[in-house]
Amino acid sequence: MNPLRIALLTHSVNPRGGVVHTLELASALTSIGHDVTVFAPAGPGETLFRLPPCRVVYAPITLPQATTVDMVEARIDAFHRALISQDATSFDVLHAQDSISGNALAELKAQARIQGFVRTVHHLDHFDNPRLAAWQRRAYQDADQVLCVSDIWTCELRSLCGIHAITVPNGVDITRFSPRADHHDVPIRRRFGIGVGPVVLAVGGVEARKNTLALLEAFASIRDVKPNAQLVIAGGASLLDHDAYTRSVLQRAAELDLSVGPHNNVIVTGPLEDAAMPALFRVADVLSMVSLREGFGLVVLEALASGTPVVASAIAPFTEYLDDATCCWADPTDIDSITSALLDALNKNTLDFAHAVPALLARFSWHASAQRHVDAYRHFLAKHALPIN
């Protein structure tokens, strides 16, 4: 079949799960012969944290951004202008990875500037602000084909919204993430003052959705039996405002007599450069993924590929692809359960890294994800009778 000309739109240049998904998908689609362009909004001097092997178009952000609503509106506007300037109709597939880019495409569709678009829903958030809630809703309701990275969200969209979505899971790069130490490992330890451990790693920053407060409480209990333990909270390049929750976490850390900062009990790294993450996974003794809500949980596969045991919430989407041989389960609403699961992972490490983990990783390659995306694209094009150039 003829190669497709595909535009992938992502909301940020920073390392968030949806952005990583976009760049990995762009690389995999390019490797199987498709012509891919990644669109991302960017302020002055900003570039993607990792450059894919394809064309990149930065959508300049020009509107002022005093509030979260202003920020979202500015990015929608940036996408809208960039897509017009790049002749959006020249692409076979326009694929939004988030609500921000989805709204830009929905507006172009309403203006009859494009015929339709594809949208991936990683997860949905709750917004008290009516404009943010309306933007989120429009981005999937106006899409002509919706994809989800896990069955739980495919089912949610069908039951709550009447949207017939298709599940297309994430992948993992087992050459980038592996147990083999490299020259980044020691500098990462030195940079953040990571000692002998054990080291509990959480990825995604400090967020209510990530259940950081409950993890902090569990970690305090772990320190009672493992006084050298450190909690490393990595990442956090979010466009949403988590300041109030972060303050509550820092206040609770002080109440628990946990020091925060490099060389201390709790290390909050903030956003990290791309090369740091594989080393941080290897340095960790366990990854804690006790989120209350996730789209897929890509870092779970990245940790397992790095040889690091995982504690995951006993909820979907994790229950869709993990089992007792590939993770330790925790009830994310029960601090004692989180504590017990972390201690089990640290003390016993009963996960099957010889057979079950490699078999799991083999099921989730970016090549396979790209092929499934292409199938969905061709189905979308056939269903909507859009011409393939």
Summed up:
The chain has 389 residues and is α/β, with parallel strands linked by helices. 42% of the residues lie in helices and 15% in strands.
Write the layout of secondary structure elements.
Elements: E1 5-9, H1 17-31, E2 35-42, E3 55-60, H2 68-85, E4 93-96, H3 99-110, E5 118-121, H4 130-141, E6 145-148, H5 151-161, E7 166-167, H6 185-192, E8 199-203, H7 212-225, E9 230-234, H8 243-255, E10 266-270, H9 276-283, E11 286-289, H10 298-305, E12 310-313, H11 318-321, E13 328-330, H12 335-347, H13 356-363, H14 366-383
Parallel strand pairs: 1-2, 1-4, 2-3, 4-5, 5-6, 6-7, 8-9, 8-11, 9-10, 11-12, 12-13
Helix pairs in contact: 1-14, 2-3, 3-4, 6-9, 7-8, 7-12
Organism: Paraburkholderia metrosideri
Enzyme class: transferase
Domain Glycosyl transferase family: 198-349
Structure description:
The chain is an alpha/beta fold and 389 residues long. It has 14 helices and 13 strands. The strands form 2 sheets. A 7-stranded parallel β-sheet has the order 3-2-1-4-5-6-7. Strands 10-9-8-11-12-13 form a 6-stranded parallel β-sheet, sandwiched between helices. Helix 3 links the parallel strand 4 and strand 5. Helix 2 crosses helix 3 (99-110), helix 3 (99-110) packs across helix 4 and helix 6 (185-192) crosses helix 9 (276-283). The radius of gyration is 21 Å and the shape is globular. The mean pLDDT is 93.
